[in-house]
Amino acid sequence: MSFSSDVKAELAGVLPSARHCQIAELAGMLTVLIKSQGRQSDMFVVTENEDLARKFFTLLKKAFNIDIDFSEEVRGPGKKDRYQVALKDEASATLTAAVRHPHLLSQDCCRRSFLRGIFLAGGSISDPEKDYHFEIVVPAEDAAERARQIMNGFDLDARCVLRKKHYVVYLKEGDQIVQALAEMGAGKALMALENVRIFRQVKGNVNRQMNCDAANISRVMQMSARQQADIEYLRDTIGFGKLPAGLRQVAELRLQFPAASLTELGEQLDPPIGKSGVNHRLRKLAALAEEERKKANINEQA
User: Fold this and answer.
1) Is the dihedral of CA 111, 116, 118, 123 positive or negative?
2) Is there a smaller number of Cβ atoms within 10 Å at the N or the C end of the chain?
3) Exposure on the CB side of residue 255, measured as CA atoms within 13 A
């Protein structure tokens, strides 16, 4: 099963105890699933998700205790079976009136139930090991805006976009998706996602540290190569014998230990000196080498 399927399977098992929350979750489902059979009083929903169909059936029985026609269509090899829950006449009218009640989503618990229902019917989550993406696909713009406002009421940053003929309400940040799962009641999926996020974060930090270390090593080696070139030039032109003792010591150590850090070079001196002291002497050597090069150029031109 995919991560998205696991989330839906968990949410299908979350059954609100309060009748107003049951109706709110039904309203969320109907936002995506509702269809008509030609008469205003007839209503039915069709889905290939058995868990969703059975939860819809269960919520209807608990909230209204009405007769419902539940049927399964076996579609043969290579195709998913199709499940249908149908209501007629008074049952359909009763449900329609309930889900359109103006105060249906006045409480946070009902808004959470609505979000759970609409996600079960039209939502999906990408595999968190590959990407962070949460979306709910609905057929109408007003329904998408309603879902977006409900999500943002929980301090989420849901956005909406038109994709072909449907509207998509989506989240792109991992922490936002974690919160959405928490609001819907998907505790197991939340923990699974958090574990993946922690692993990805640690892996990212390690990679960044390795890249940083590699960059530092490269920078040190480039600096060391320049220092060696200056020192070798001084050795081959004026000789180390004309250098002050402190500069001569650093020059000899740099040639002996080309990969050593400034701190390590300082520890090799007698007496030892700090990193800044070694850097100061190497700068003096570089300046001397530059002076000698300029002198050589003037002599060549003369």
Assistant:
1) positive
2) C
3) 14
